[in-house]
Amino acid sequence: MIRSIVARTLLGVLASFIFAVPFAAQGQGTALDRSDALCRKDLHKTLGRLIRESVKEMNKCHTKRMAGHYAPARDCNVPENSPSPLKVERESDKLRRRALHSCAGERRAPAAPAPALGYDSCPAPCGGVAIDGDYLNVADCLICLSRSWTIDLVSTAYGTPAVPTDRGAKRCQDRIGNLVKKYLSKLITDQEQCQTAQDRGKVAADVDCRTADLLGRQAKARLNLRRNIERCGDALLELDSCAADVDGALACIVPKVESTVAALFDATYRPLP
């Protein structure tokens, strides 16, 4: 009950803030029917959960490998080698079910046909997934994309650390993994709340929900990321991240997280025909 009240309050503050402030960025701008808005919202939310679960499991794989529980040759930058790949597969199945329930009309009023919401093809590197107007195929497209995005993200943030490593390096690796997941979550949640409100005509049409940080929560999460990576200190030298110092790590990890979330947004909230 309390959470529901807080959520409604925040959305009210968000809406009033958005209408009060002019923005240069351009949003999608078209209010949608309720069924269309819910379809896009549910696809975005469930895809976000899949990406977070994949990152979480791949981080666990790195932790176990660095602790000597896995062979040094194990590739922890692919979800199939995580400790619990079935957890990732379950999230994939949830996305397929959500596409059927929320978009194709199995549990609620159906959304518009997939091409009418911009789902006419699957972007690279998953162009081989034919959508053909089928929301189940839309889900398969998003699942394929999420695998590519998470492999790219985790490979950038973690690399393949040498083993064995000392305790400080292990703690730093775990810290980076948890921070990446938290920052992902913050960005994804902000995008979803903003775009869903815009789809329902409750947010100004010129707001770009892809990048808007209207309540400053993303900036706070980014600052938390910096403060915690700074705690790694020299331990970064023993890892195989995209940089061996704090400034360098932030300069590559933060943009990679943000580009991953931007790709998620573009894949689910597509320009309307």
Task: Write up what this structure looks like.
With 273 residues, the chain is mainly α. It has one domain (33-265). It has helices at residues 2-20, 34-66, 85-103, 135-158, 167-199, 217-230, 246-268. α4 packs antiparallel against α7 and α5 (167-199) runs parallel beside α7 (246-268). The protein starts with a helix and ends in a 5-residue tail after the last helix.
What does the average pLDDT come to?
86
Please report which band the strand proportion falls in: under 5%, 5-15%, 15-25%, 25-35%, 35-45% or over 45%.
Answer: under 5%
Annotation field: number of helices:
7
- Radius of gyration over all CA atoms, rounded: 20 Å
User: Residue ranges: pLDDT <50 for 5 or more in a row?
Assistant: 1-27
- Overall 3D shape: globular
Task: Record the SSE blueprint.
Elements: H1 2-20, H2 34-66, H3 85-103, H4 135-158, H5 167-199, H6 217-230, H7 246-268
Helix pairs in contact: 2-3, 2-4, 2-5, 2-7, 3-4, 4-7, 5-6, 5-7, 6-7
Question: How would you summarize this macromolecular structure in one to three sentences?
Answer:
By secondary structure, this protein is an all-alpha fold. The protein has seven helices and no strands.
State the main characteristics.
mainly alpha; 273 residues; disordered N terminus; single chain; 7 helices
